[in-house]
């Protein structure tokens, strides 16, 4: 239990459950939040800090990589692109995909891990989302693990952990309840910062997960 881990915490449900698992499995956790110019970044930052406070995390880093917004290509960062209504049966990449975002975030987490001596990086990627988001696929993380192994100091040992990657949203909800994760503090909506819209991809997946788990979502919806 003496290990140190960095947890990427967006403020959403998946990262919250991953944080709960990391907190149970390690002696110390450090929380990393990365904004990228998304329209709900202030609300997500509040959730990040609330979750960190819940677990008593002292070492936390809040960074911005708004160059992804300048690059564009996503409805989350470009107001000229509409956040589409959810289509949970679609296999197309949605407008909410932020090109290669997770690679940028993992690179930053790796840099911080080398500095503070963390041996694990937790990220709440879910393969169920991978048809829409290429950087949520297990093979992406396997490839990035090789990048870390090759691009860090010879004595550095950093392992990427994706503890919920094989779970459905319903199983993630169940795992969160089992671990007493503060799901009431999380935020998933792509559109709104006050009441969740309930109809964007993220809201729809979350609501379906709670419904299939037989639980009530504790956050407010329109």
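^ structure tokens above, recovered residues below v
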């Amino acid at each position: 239990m003496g290990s140190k881990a960095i947890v990427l915490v967006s403020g959403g449900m998946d990262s919250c459950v991953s944080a709960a698992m990391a907190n149970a499995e390690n002696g110390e956790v450090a929380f990393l939040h990365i904004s990228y110019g998304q329209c709900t970044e202030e609300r997500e930052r509040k959730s990040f800090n609330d979750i960190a406070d819940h677990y008593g995390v002292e070492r936390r880093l809040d960074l911005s990589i708004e160059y992804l917004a300048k690059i564009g290509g996503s409805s989350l960062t470009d107001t000229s692109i509409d956040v589409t209504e959810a289509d949970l049966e679609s296999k197309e990449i949605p407008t909410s995909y932020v090109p290669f975002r997770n690679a940028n975030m993992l690179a930053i987490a790796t840099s911080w891990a080398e500095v503070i001596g963390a041996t694990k990086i937790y990220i709440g990627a879910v393969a169920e989302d991978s048809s829409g988001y290429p950087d949520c696929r297990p093979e992406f993380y396997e490839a990035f693990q090789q990048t870390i192994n090759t691009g860090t100091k010879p004595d550095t040992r950093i392992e990427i952990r994706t503890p919920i990657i094989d779970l459905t949203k319903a199983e993630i909800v169940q795992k969160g309840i089992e671990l007493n994760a503060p799901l009431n503090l999380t935020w998933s909506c792509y559109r709104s910062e006050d009441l969740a819209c309930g109809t964007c991809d993220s809201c729809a997946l979350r609501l379906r997960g709670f419904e299939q788990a037989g639980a009530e979502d504790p956050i407010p919806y329109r």
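The domain at 4-168 is CATH 3.40.50.620 (Rossmann fold).
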